[in-house]
Structures are given as C-alpha cells and as structure tokens.
C-alpha cells in the first residue's frame, strides 16, 4: 500500500511540474509576442554639411535589414525633417539621398527598450560630380519678321565671318552692298541709318566709311524698317536701317583717303571719323582740279558774191587766229560733331 501511495505522489508531482513549465512557456511566448507588437517612431533632420542649411524634399527610405525589403518612403519637409510612425520593432536601414549629394545609410534597431529613435541632424556631403551652375539661354531665330520691320541676328549665324558692319549688312534681308560699301534697300540708296535707335553724325558725311568703323562682333542685331512711322520724321524714302550694338557707345577711329587721276580731271578726298565715349566727330574734305591746258584756234571763212548785171564776182575772206590757256581747281569740306546727353537726347553740330 505504501508503495502504491509513493508512486501516485511521484506521478502527481511530475504532472504539477510539467504544468508549471507549460504555464511559464506560455507566459514567455506572450511576452515575446508583446515585444514584437511594439510600434515605434523614427525621425530626423537633413542638413547640408558645408552650408549647414536644411535640405527640403530629400528622399528618405526605410528598409528592413533582415530581408532587404523597403518598408516605407518619404521626403523631408521645408524644414528638412522627416518622420516614420508605427514602425514594428526590428533592425532597419535609413537611406537618405538627394540630387548632387552622396547617399547616406544609417543602421538602427527598434525594440521594447528603445521604441523611438531620433536621428537629430543628418549631414549630407555634396557630391564631387555636382554641377556648380546650369545656364539656359534662349536662342533667337536668325531672321525675325515683325509688324514694321525685319530683324537679322548675326549672333546666331554660324556661317558669319564678317569684319565690320558692311559685311554684316551684306547678309541682312532686303539690303545689297556694292564694291565701294554703298548700301541700298530694294535698289534705292536713300536710306537713313540709326545706331541703337538714334541718328549719328557719322552717317551724315560718309555712310560707307561709318559702317567700316563698326566691328562685326559688336553688332547684336540689324533692323530693316521698310515702312518708317511718324517717330522717324519720314526720313529715308527707301527705309531705315537700325544697327543695334552690344556696347551702347562705339569707341575708335576710322580714316580713309581716296583719289582718282585722269587725263583731264583729278579728284582726292579725305574722311576722318572719331568716337570716344559720348562724343563723336566726323570730318571730310576733298579737292578736284584739272591739268593745265593750252589751246589754239584757226578760223578762216570765204564768201563769194555774184553780181549778174555787171558780170563780176566778189570774194570776201575772214581769217581768225588765237591761243588759250585754262586750269581750274575746287575744294569742299565739312565737319560734324555730336554729344550724347543720355540714351534719348544728343547735341549735334555740323
């Protein structure tokens, strides 16, 4: 009987111990389940390492380190901050990337003891391949048709190889230039030239020489106005050519000497143009003269008078001899000056 009681007591103790272990095991599983169900938060602020300025609209991704799966993604706000909420406990990689900067990866772990992680200031380093500046320019068309004019933009002409304004005008629409540099508009040379919308004393004396004074690389555009309005005082029967320069003031000088010789008449001319700041001067002069000439005259005239009644014949003779000497010479000249008071007013004298 005692043996039976001892066996029963031992079996009952084993059952109690086994039940206690099962309870403890179940309790441990509950705690583990509670640990994995923790939802934490991750926050941070992204800043430029060099300028210390916040970086708005930066890409931030959260990746599970164990399975390399992207859990969530967001961008920083205007103050450079980002937030991840309700993140299960575990190990994660926070990746921060932005155009022109090196990507930064931060390893973190959320747990029951550390459910909230604040990364505070995250410094991004600018990439060495970052482009410092991108400049976008609008390219104008080579020719522009407007209501009252046609515009030629030599800056956009890839085939342009000109030395001065004369060469540029050769490619302008409706204009033609002869070998002497004289410009005509649709066959007429009665053209009014303007520089940046204003008249210039340079063109008053010799337009061909004045055009040679303007370098081609300083010309921004050429406006050919075929129907001048009232603001142009109706000058230039053929039209107006307005040369727009990159520099508002043309500095420099230009001088030409020309001459012609012949068996009877000789002609020489001098043109000088000077521009400095707001002041301009144009001078011209010329002379024409003939070679000395001598001449002789020999004149003889004979008249016969018939007298029928007296049966006689009358003879009248006229003879004239002479010598001559001639030579002539002439001069011409002019002087034009102007001074620009401002962009719209100037003083001219001629």
How many DSSP-defined strands?
A: 21
- The ordered string of helix (H) and strand (E) elements is HEEEEEEEEEHEEEHHEEEEEEEEE
CATH topology of the domain at 143-249: Ferric Hydroxamate Uptake Protein, Chain A, domain 1
What topology, given as strand order, has the largest sheet? 8-9-13-14-12
Q: Overall pLDDT, averaged? A: 75
Largest sheet: 5 strands, mixed
CATH class of the domain at 143-249: Mainly Beta
SS strand fraction? over 45%
C-alpha termini separation: 152 Å
Shape: rod-shaped
CATH architecture of the domain at 143-249: Beta Complex
Helical content, roughly?
A: 10-25%
Report Rg: 51 Å
Regions with little confidence, pLDDT below 50 for 5+ residues? 1-36
CATH superfamily of the domain at 143-249: TonB-dependent receptor, plug domain
Give me the secondary-structure category: mainly beta
The total count of helices amounts to 4
Describe the overall structure.
The chain is mainly β and 350 residues long. Among the domains are: 39-124, Immunoglobulin-like (Sandwich); 143-249, Beta Complex (Ferric Hydroxamate Uptake Protein, Chain A, domain 1). It has four helices and 21 strands. It has helices at 2-36, 165-169, 202-205, 207-212; strands at 39-48, 59-64, 69-75, 81-88, 90-97, 104-110, 116-124, 143-145, 150-152, 175-177, 183-185, 191-195, 219-225, 239-245, 252-260, 265-276, 279-290, 293-307, 312-326, 329-340, 346-349. The longest helix is centred in the first third of the chain and has 35 residues, at 2-36. It is rod-shaped and about 160 Å long. It starts with a helix and ends with a strand.
